[in-house]
Amino acid sequence: MNCLRCNSPMYAEVYDHISETQGQGFPAMHCLMCGDIVDPVILKHRQARVEPRGERARLAVVTATS
Ligand SMILES: [Zn+2]
Predict the structure, then answer these.
(1) Where do the domains of the chain lie?
(2) What's the superkingdom here (predicted)?
(3) CA 26, CA 14: separation in Å to the nearest integer?
């Protein structure tokens, strides 16, 4: 696959995320041009951020402080 930032070829590497996959390596893609790393955890967070839940959370904060 190509990098989502700079569209350069990405290289597969194995990472060990301390808090999410303790002791278990998992494959991730690393861009040597801009240093971006895409792993399953990051992709999961990005997909979660698209959900409208974040919009409601921000609205709740605004009403609480006003
Ligand atoms: Zn890149």
Answers:
(1) 10-65
(2) Bacteria
(3) 5
Rounded distance from Cα 40 to ligand 1 centre (Å): 17
In angstroms, the CA 31 to CA 38 distance is 8
Q: How far apart are CA 15 and CA 36, in angstroms?
A: 14
The residue ranges of the chain whose pLDDT is under 70 are 17-18, 20-22, 42, 49-66
What is the side-by-side order of every strand in the sheet holding 26-31?
10-15, 26-31, 37-38
Ligand 1 mean position, distance from CA 22 (Å):
27
**Measured between alpha carbons, how far is 64 from 47 in angstroms, rounded to an integer?**
27
